[in-house]
Design goal:
With 450 residues, this protein is of the alpha+beta class. It folds into two domains: 232 residues, Aminopeptidase, CATH 3.40.630.10; 147 residues, Alpha-Beta Plaits (2-Layer Sandwich). Helix content is 31%, strand content 24%. The protein has twelve helices and 19 strands. The strands form five sheets. A six-stranded mixed beta sheet has the order 1-2-6-3-7-18. Helix 1 packs across helix 12 and helix 10 packs across helix 12. The longest helix is centred in the last third of the chain and has 17 residues. The chain is globular, with a radius of gyration of 24 Å. It starts with 12 loop residues before the first helix and ends with a helix. It binds zinc ion.
């Protein structure tokens, strides 16, 4: 039987995924963190809507608290309406890029030398393109997944989701009704470790936890006065001392459940010992390659001073001085962290959170993890999936707050020698074409089995 002339031609995800990712990159969706200069999300969202409606989806376009902050939602009905829905989410914004630093234009989406190049290639228009390709294939082939799928394309992730996921979770929880589990960034990518027998093993890092993300403002108050006088209550001095104490503080090494499980697997695979209660763990991790940088920061809390401001004239002692500290706290450590900071800032400095996003942690088990495992191993037999904690934050923080169980699973099979984590927000960000094709096949099988 031939299809009626007006029915859309079925699309095949692997045939169009590279083109979709390349086109997504050509939308300059730079998020500067400032509403006045952030751009491109609405146009990109509109293009996503067209690609979805073209194959028959009904879509919902939602602006998250400010004009142009565009989000797109679409649902695909599954076989069992009594089961909770699975959400696949990705953000459309990217961090800015300085074109003169790059080998190719960062918004060219060039497909060269086996890679798709450009800002967002790994963070995260790769996953957005794979998701879109599969959503289109499923709809145009009348595929019935086991349960409802919710596809979410989001704004403002690179600014902590203030005008994106955080706003949506607070003001439009109805968009996530019935969603019990979700996948998004940052996980599912492979890294290769040396094995005890002199060989190597490819592992896939599944994100099951995230440190909290907090930006803390410090304000020191003193007595204003003339710069020529003797002065023992100087706000700048108080602030500088507090900032120096915080910056120099070494937070204790703490092994969370996720990190304990990961280190045990890494020991088993590599034959190396990782005693996470000693500094040597970080040195030992360095022996397993570029991934160590991402893992080292999940062994303890961090508090890095990032901004300072005070004063308006060289001979005037100001009454106040301010600083901002970037804080990343392990799950379960918040109270202890707050106590430590209060001791470090001393009596003349007060603090407030200007951004305060919770940590996330879920267990590495259950049917969804088994489905990830089966889908990865089908396409990369001999590999192994492992849990890990992200030291940064994603939209998962907002969704976990709604009770949704979140994982980072954007599968990519990467060359052994590619320093993948360095590409995030990096110069010459790019994703291998083969990795996109692999990821699309894995995601398709995963969604059909989850
Ligand atoms: Zn991202």
């Amino acid at each position: 039987m031939t299809a009626p002339a007006d029915s859309p031609r079925p699309t095949t995800a692997t045939d169009e995924v590279v083109d979709l990712v390349s086109t997504l990159i050509r939308f300059d969706t730079s998020n500067t963190g400032d509403l006045r200069t952030t751009k491109g999300e609405a146009e990109c969202a509109q293009w996503v809507i067209e690609r979805l409606e073209e194959v028959g989806y009904e879509t919902e376009y939602v602006e998250s608290g400010a004009p142009g902050r565009g989000n797109v939602f679409a649902r695909l009905k599954g076989a069992d309406p009594t089961r909770g829905a699975l959400m696949i989410h990705g953000h459309l914004d990217v961090v800015p890029a300085e074109a003169s630093d790059w080998s190719v234009h960062p918004f060219s989406g060039a497909v060269e030398d086996g890679y798709v190049w450009g800002r967002g290639a790994v963070d995260m228009k790769d996953m957005v393109g794979m998701t879109l390709a599969i959503a289109r294939q499923f709809k145009s082939t009348n595929t019935l997944p086991p349960r409802d799928l919710v596809f979410a394309f989001l704004a403002d992730e690179e600014n902590g989701g203030k005008w994106g996921s955080q706003w949506l979770a607070k003001h439009r929880p109805d968009l996530f009704a019935g969603v019990t589990e979700a996948i998004g960034e940052v996980g599912g990518y492979s890294f290769t470790v040396p094995t005890a027998d002199g060989g190597s093993r490819r592992l896939y890092a599944i994100e099951t936890a995230e440190k909290s993300l907090g930006w803390m403002k410090l304000t020191a108050t003193g007595r204003a006065g003339h710069g020529s006088f003797i002065h023992d209550d100087n706000a700048v001095t108080h602030l500088a001392a507090a900032v120096a104490r915080i910056g120099a503080h070494k937070f204790p090494l703490v092994q969370t459940d996720t990190v304990t499980e990961l280190l045990a697997i890494l020991s088993e695979e590599t034959g190396l010992e990782f005693d996470a209660t000693s500094d040597e763990a970080i040195e030992a991790l360095a022996k397993i390659g570029g991934i160590a940088r991402a893992l080292g920061a999940t062994l303890h809390d961090t508090a890095n001073p990032t901004m300072l401001s005070a004063g308006y004239k060289a001979n005037v002692i100001p009454q106040t001085a301010e600083a901002v500290v970037d804080c990343r706290i392990l799950p379960g450590r918040r109270e202890e962290f707050d106590r430590t900071i209060d001791e470090l800032i001393g009596p003349h400095v007060t603090r407030e959170w200007i951004t305060d996003l919770r940590s996330v942690e879920t267990s590495f088990d259950g049917p969804l993890v088994e489905a990830m495992n089966a889908a990865v191993l089908k396409h990369d037999p001999g590999a192994r999936i492992v849990p890990y904690m992200l030291s940064a934050g994603t939209d998962a923080k907002a969704f976990a707050g709604l009770g949704i169980r979140c994982f980072g699973f954007a599968p990519l099979k990467l060359p052994d020698d590619l320093d993948f984590t360095a590409l995030f927000h990096g110069i010459d960000e790019r994703v291998p074409v083969d990795a996109l094709l692999f990821g699309t096949r894995v995601l398709e099988d995963f969604l059909l089995a989850s």
